[in-house]
Design goal:
about 210 residues; alpha+beta; HIT family, subunit A; 6-stranded antiparallel sheet; about 20% helix; binds zinc ion; Diadenosine tetraphosphate (Ap4A) hydrolase; HIT-like_sf
Length: about 210
C-alpha cells in the first residue's frame, strides 16, 4: 500500500457528533397518521403493515399541473435560492421546514416543465448539472454518500432531490434516508446557514450566481 494515500476518515464529523446517538427520538410529526406511511398500529399497539386503500382515479392534480400560474416553484424569486443561472436553480430546504438532514437541496429547471417534457437543450444540461450538485454536496465535511431522487408526486415542476448521508451512519443508508431525515432533530440555524453558504460557493465556482453568502 502506498504511503501517499490519504488516511481514511476515522473521526465522526461535527454533524454526526451532534446526533442524539443512543437516545430515543421523539419526533414532532406522528408518522402513523401520515397517509403514505406503510405501517400502522393495531389496538394492542403492535406495528403492522397498513392495508392498501382503493385506488383514486383520476388522481387529484398536483400543484402546477395546469401551468406556471399556480406553481409554487415558478412563484419563488431567485433571492430565495441557493444558486441560480440562466436555466437552472438550486434550492435549499425552507428554513422553517428543515429537518435533520446534513444537507438536502433541490435542482430545478427555470422553465415550468416536468421531466418527460424537458426541452432538448435542458435535457443535455441535466446530466452535467446533476454531477455538479453531487460534487458540491460531496465537498461538505462528513458526507458518506449523496443520494439523488426524483419523485414529483407533489409538484408538477421538475425538482430533483439531493440528500447527503452522513459518513459512518450506516442505519441511514438507501431508501430510508428521507424518512430518517423527518425523524432526526433539526440541525441548528448556525449549522444550516454554514452548510448553505459552502454549497452556494461550491456551485458558483463553475458559473452562475450564489444567493447565500
Ligand atoms: Zn413551475
Amino acid at each position: 500500500m502506498s504511503t501517499d494515500e490519504p488516511d481514511p476518515v476515522v473521526q465522526p464529523s461535527e454533524y454526526v457528533s451532534d446526533l442524539p446517538i443512543g437516545v430515543e427520538l421523539k419526533p414532532k410529526v406522528d408518522h402513523f397518521t401520515w397517509d403514505v406511511f406503510p405501517f400502522a398500529k393495531d389496538d394492542e399497539g403492535r406495528v403492522r403493515i397498513r392495508r392498501l386503500d382503493q385506488p383514486v382515479l383520476p388522481e387529484p392534480p398536483r400543484n402546477g399541473e395546469d401551468g406556471p400560474r399556480d406553481c409554487v416553484i415558478c412563484a419563488k424569486p431567485d433571492e430565495k435560492y441557493l444558486w441560480t443561472d440562466e436555466h437552472w436553480r438550486v434550492a435549499y430546504q425552507d428554513p422553517e421546514e428543515r429537518r435533520g438532514s446534513l444537507a438536502t437541496v433541490f435542482l430545478e429547471p427555470r422553465v415550468h416543465t416536468d421531466l418527460g417534457d424537458l426541452p432538448a437543450e435542458r435535457a443535455l444540461e441535466l446530466g452535467p448539472m446533476i454531477v455538479r450538485v453531487e460534487r458540491a454536496l460531496a465537498s461538505l465535511e462528513g458526507v458518506g454518500r449523496v443520494h439523488v431522487n426524483r419523485w414529483g408526486d407533489g409538484v408538477a415542476h421538475l425538482h430533483l432531490w439531493f440528500t447527503a448521508r452522513p459518513a459512518g451512519m450506516l442505519q441511514l443508508r438507501g431508501t430510508f434516508l428521507p424518512l430518517w431525515n423527518s425523524l432526526l432533530p433539526r440541525v441548528t440555524t448556525q449549522y444550516f446557514d454554514g452548510v448553505n453558504m459552502k454549497l452556494a460557493a461550491a456551485l458558483e465556482k463553475d458559473g452562475g450566481r450564489a444567493h447565500v453568502r
